[in-house]
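quick q for whoever's on today - can somebody do inverse folding on this one?? i tried earlier but teh output was garbage lol. tokens:
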């Protein structure tokens, strides 16, 4: 009978004080480039507009937030904005809205969107 046996391994890394800052900086930069928000099922059908649409029923306001700062590093503003829009689209799908538009600008990783149900 064949099988796979996995043993737990521990890795100990000893870093000098002069390298700690560089190591922490590299880790922060690596995580700053990650996309932490993924599109939920149904959210891809939600449109993002720059202004409120006409002829649509307002379903409510959606306030979303993401991490905009990792340690002392500010994340890329475009990436933060994209993740806020994705979260708003995810939430809109859950309240039967098919369109969102930002009510305010992103601030400290927070933004509010209006959610709309439009007849298409």
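ok took a stab at it. sequence:
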């Amino acid at each position: 009978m064949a099988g796979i046996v996995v043993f737990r391994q521990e890795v100990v890394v000893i870093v000098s004080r002069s390298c700690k800052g560089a190591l922490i900086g590299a880790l922060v930069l690596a995580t700053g480039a990650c996309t932490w928000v993924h599109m939920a099922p149904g959210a891809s059908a939600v449109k993002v507009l720059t202004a409120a649409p006409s002829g649509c029923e307002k379903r409510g306001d959606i306030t979303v937030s993401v991490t905009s700062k990792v340690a002392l590093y500010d994340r890329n503003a475009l990436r933060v904005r994209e993740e806020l829009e994705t979260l708003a689209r995810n939430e809109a799908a859950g309240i039967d809205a098919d369109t969102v538009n930002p009510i305010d600008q992103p601030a400290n990783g927070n933004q509010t969107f209006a959610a709309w149900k439009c007849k298409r």
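fwiw The beta strands are 47-48, 56-65, 69-70, 73-74, 99-102, 110-118. also The helical segments are 17-32, 77-94. so keep that in mind when u check it
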